[in-house]
Write a structure and sequence with these properties.
- It is a single chain.
- The chain contains 9 helices and 17 strands.
- Helices cover 26% and strands 24% of the residues.
- It has 2 domains: 48-143, Rieske [2Fe-2S] iron-sulphur domain (Rieske Iron-sulfur Protein, 3-layer Sandwich); 157-410, Naphthalene 1,2-dioxygenase Alpha Subunit, Chain A, domain 1 (Alpha-Beta Complex), CATH 3.90.380.10.
- By secondary structure, the chain is α+β, with helices and mostly antiparallel strands.
- The radius of gyration is 22 Å and the shape is globular.
- Helix 5 crosses helix 8 (352-377) and helix 5 (191-198) packs antiparallel against helix 9 (393-410).
- A 7-stranded antiparallel beta sheet has the order 11-17-16-15-14-13-12, with helices on both faces. The protein has a 4-stranded antiparallel beta sheet with strand order 4-3-2-5, with no helix packed on it. It has a 3-stranded antiparallel beta sheet with strand order 1-10-9.
- Residues 43-149 form the Rieske domain.
- InterPro entries: Rieske_2Fe-2S, Rieske_2Fe-2S_sf, Ring_hydroxy_dOase_asu_C_dom, Rng_hydr_dOase-A.
- Belongs to the bacterial ring-hydroxylating dioxygenase alpha subunit family.
């Protein structure tokens, strides 16, 4: 791939253990490289299976110049296609979501089955071969209800992440949930700042009073000192005790950390504070109808991070998913979905305001932090600063993963 000498030099001189140089957050040229090297070559989490519960249900996802159509077919399989008619390239589905019987182009009415085959194209003559004009498929993987797509001709191997994560995710039975709420926010910041902010909780105590109600202070990295040694030991003992209980219930909890692999991911189940059941303002369940076959509410919080664009929190009563989509060098979409059991009744089993309160507040606080960082990166006084080895190790692994992918793409 042709890139400028300046970009090549930036990639080559990246200093481990430090934040990235300013152009990584500001440059339109690097943003274009990000879209090609990252978002066109890797597995991107874009949806959940309950987004398309019935045949004909669809959602559209915009990745740079590409619009992707995700639809459930008549055999209940979730499929992904380029949202482009094979006639003259018109956009097929122009809403964020909807329901169709067949996929019909609004321009000349070329009509496709949900399985992608062209079934009707008027006035094309006897020699026209419909079989050569099916919709162009996009690689898709369904990981226990989380939908990933990849635009590459040859996508990275998904099997290792599936093998590791299915035992953790399947007990929460995401396919038998429903989307109780979705909130899209636009952050005026680079997508990497959004991801870096997510990968650490150094900032949590000072900035997230709602979130830290249910999170142990020591749960995401801390420097041990005489002042906190007793508290850290108590937390570690709680983790060991609860892990034994969960393992006996066939709920895996041990940390898996493979963030530097091509299809990078990490997971861990941790206890919630205050005898916590869920990530709510009182640490109690937000939905009375528990997920899957759960009969016990205090099952901790299972966190799942993927490179490059998602994180998720699985609890006994609900699931929160986050998908990050770059819009420009300085603008990022953060899409949050809250899922509850498909039979849970709004106003009876759960209240949407209570369900969403913690992460609506946290997302808004994080948006402000990302925007502070974006503005700071544009200052002549900015230079890469050192990561904390105790609380920002996952930020370093995200940055190292990212720079390695760019280097592979440009041959640096």
């Amino acid at each position: 791939m042709n890139v400028s000498a300046d970009i090549r030099a930036l990639v080559q001189r990246r200093k481990a253990g430090h934040s990235l140089e300013a152009p990584f957050y500001l440059s339109d040229e690097i943003f274009a490289l990000d879209m090609e090297a990252i978002f066109r070559q890797h597995w991107i989490q874009v949806a959940v299976e309950p987004d398309v519960p019935e045949p004909g249900d669809y959602v559209t996802v915009e990745l740079g110049q590409d619009s992707i159509l995700i639809v459930r077919d008549d055999d209940m399989q979730v499929r992904a296609y380029h949202n482009v008619c094979r006639h003259r390239g018109a956009r097929l589905c122009n809403e964020d979501k909807g329901t169709v019987g067949n996929i019909v182009c609004p321009y000349h009415s070329w009509t496709y089955k949900l399985s992608g085959e062209l079934m009707f194209a008027e006035h094309m003559g006897e020699k026209f071969d419909r079989c050569k004009h099916s919709l162009k498929s996009v690689h898709i993987e369904n990981l226990a209800g989380l939908i990933f797509i990849c635009l590459a001709k040859e996508p990275p191997d998904f099997a290792p992440m599936r093998a590791a994560m299915e035992p953790y995710l399947l007990p929460h039975d995401l396919p038998n949930t429903k989307v109780a709420a979705q909130v899209d926010i636009i952050e005026q910041g680079n997508w990497k700042l959004t991801m870096e902010n997510n990968r650490e909780c150094y900032h949590c105590v000072a900035n997230h009073p709602e979130l830290t109600i249910s999170l142990y202070e020591y749960g995401f990295g801390y420097q041990r000192s005489p002042a906190n040694a007793e508290g850290m030991e108590a937390f570690e003992q709680t983790c060991r005790t609860r892990a034994e209980e969960w393992e006996a219930m066939k709920l895996p909890s041990a940390e898996i950390e493979r963030l530097l692999e091509t299809t990078g991911f990490r997971t861990q189940r941790l206890p919630l504070d205050r005898s916590g059941e869920s990530q709510t303002l009182d640490a109690k369940v937000a939905s009375k109808k528990l997920l899957g076959r759960f009969e016990q509410a205090d099952l901790g919080g299972l966190s799942f991070w993927t490179q490059p664009n998602s994180w998720h929190h699985f609890m006994s009563d609900h699931i929160v998913t986050f998908s990050v989509i770059p819009l420009s060098a300085g603008k990022t979409l953060v899409r949050t979905k809250w899922l509850v059991h498909k039979d849970a009744r709004e106003g009876v089993d759960y209240d949407v305001k209570n369900l969403t309160a913690v992460w609506n507040a946290t997302n808004d606080q994080d948006r402000a932090l990302v925007e502070y960082s974006q503005r700071g990166a544009g200052s002549s006084g900015y230079e890469p600063g050192p990561y904390s080895p105790f609380t920002e190790g996952l930020v370093e692994k995200f940055s190292a993963w990212y720079v390695r992918r760019l280097a592979e793409q440009i041959g640096a």
